[in-house]
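LAB NOTEBOOK - FOLDING QUEUE
OPERATOR: T.R.
BATCH SIZE: 2
PURPOSE: Compare the predicted structure-token outputs for two unrelated chains run back to back under identical settings.
PRIORITY: normal
REVIEWER: second-year student, initials M.K.

ITEM 1
FIELD SEQUENCE / FIELD STRUCTURE:
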Amino acid sequence: MKGEILALIAALLWGIVPILDKYALQEVPTYPAIVIRAFGGFAAILTISAILKDFNFNFSKAAVLLLISGAISGAFGMIFYFEALKSIGASRAVPITAIYPMFTAVFSLIFLSELISARVLIGIVLIIVGIILVSEV
């Protein structure tokens, strides 16, 4: 149950952020906005790590994977996300970007050999239906 509560807190926080981003993008261009947002995340994590005295770092293959992950989601993904926010608004951009669990399931099957259960398959179908409903296709 603890994991579910933590996931719900994360979802709540992530639900608030697009509203802040949309307001900010009215005054700040996309690329500086992403840099400022990334710096805010960096500063928060650094502060929390210092308070909890929980910052153990060894440069390894895992660190390289995390750098790549940060570049993909923190830079490239954010560029497209911010442009979508500006173009179609938070109420449509966020549900559309929420399709990522479908991609994660497919990539997990391909790269991690994880099986896709019937429940996950049904979830993927529902995600696709949801995207169709919020899109102007």
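ITEM 2
FIELD SEQUENCE / FIELD STRUCTURE:
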Amino acid sequence: MNSIKRIFSNHLEKTISATKELNYKLNEIIKIGDFLKKKIIKKKKIFVYGNGGSYADGSHFVAELVSTYKKKNRKALPFIMLGSNLPSLTAWSNDNDYKTFLIREIDALSSEGDVLILISTSGGNIKTNQSINLLNLAKFSKKKKLSLISFLGKKEGAIGKFSNIKFHTNSNNTPIIQENQQIIFHLISEYLDKNFK
């Protein structure tokens, strides 16, 4: 086997292993789905955010639920992608501080009892200056009395300490964590498809 095939094979083995592990965590995923279902029934909003690739994954997740997943006639669900208003993001970042924009946005849009979903492979780390904007948001969510659900890698980082519900992918490999989280978001989308008309 040449070197690139070995790299591909190794990646696929790790992906398959992480995916198989989800079989043992299905109750956790159902618990998250049920929690979101109850919040939607109570007319609460669900905000989603992640940095970089996690932003892309979160945006995909929101699209499945505001638009459609499999059920084409299902009602739209109240999911909102934070950071998607670029004029506001760039204005605040330019005039003030990028790391605090999410606080500004969630303060404007959220109400007590709403849900915040944070997606992070690192989990945030003050010492290494990782995902400080997420950490600031996680702390602020407690002040706003939001429920925080976090999807994290093996190391929960500081974000996990502020979370009401946290789901760990048992890996420190960023691409593997992201691929695993994408599957979880599809499973939750499936759950909500089954529970709403």
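REVIEWER COMMENT (ITEM 2): The longest helix spans residues 174-195.
FOLLOW-UP: none requested
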